[in-house]
Amino acid sequence: MIKLFKDYFQKSKVFLYPLLGIPKGSRYIPKETYMHCNSKGYEGDEFKLFCIYEGDGSRSFEAFETIKLLKNELFVDYKDLGNRLNLYVFDLSVYPQTWLAVHEGMYSRIHEREKKTITDFFGNKGLIVETVESYLYPEFYFPDYAELLAVSEDMLEEVGELCDPPNTKKETFIINSYKNPIITKDSISLHK
What we know:
By secondary structure, this protein is of the alpha+beta class. The protein contains 7 helices and 6 strands; from the N terminus they run H-E-E-E-H-E-E-H-H-H-H-H-E. It has one domain.
């Protein structure tokens, strides 16, 4: 069974965040993730993942921050955003094919190694698992989507992908800007 998402969801959260190796269901999850940051020092940066976390000042969060974020092998930068919000920047240049595939909305072209990481992250049970799998391996799901959307399989095969491409505006975090508030509606949950 697959689910059609009517509202936009952050593609960076589904396809890139799992590459950090932080288990789904961790006590602390990002408030949001982004593929771009339109701020001095980050303009034009490719192959980055920007994660916003809300620290709660607890020892538990400090331990999580130290072990899972600051000591993450992909971690490159940190910014205190105020109001307990922090920006953590990760360099995904070790996954160029995957980052570019996600950036272009060509999820079926994500490297097979990262497809496994993504599907392992979401587990093997539940609606979200099969839905994410359908984005990674659309050729196996064309009949299901054709029926669900009341379109021909040929049309879906011509398009090739079953998930919309990333919205660059929504995937760009603007530091100190109220024009791009952090998305707070949980469209894709990283909780267990």
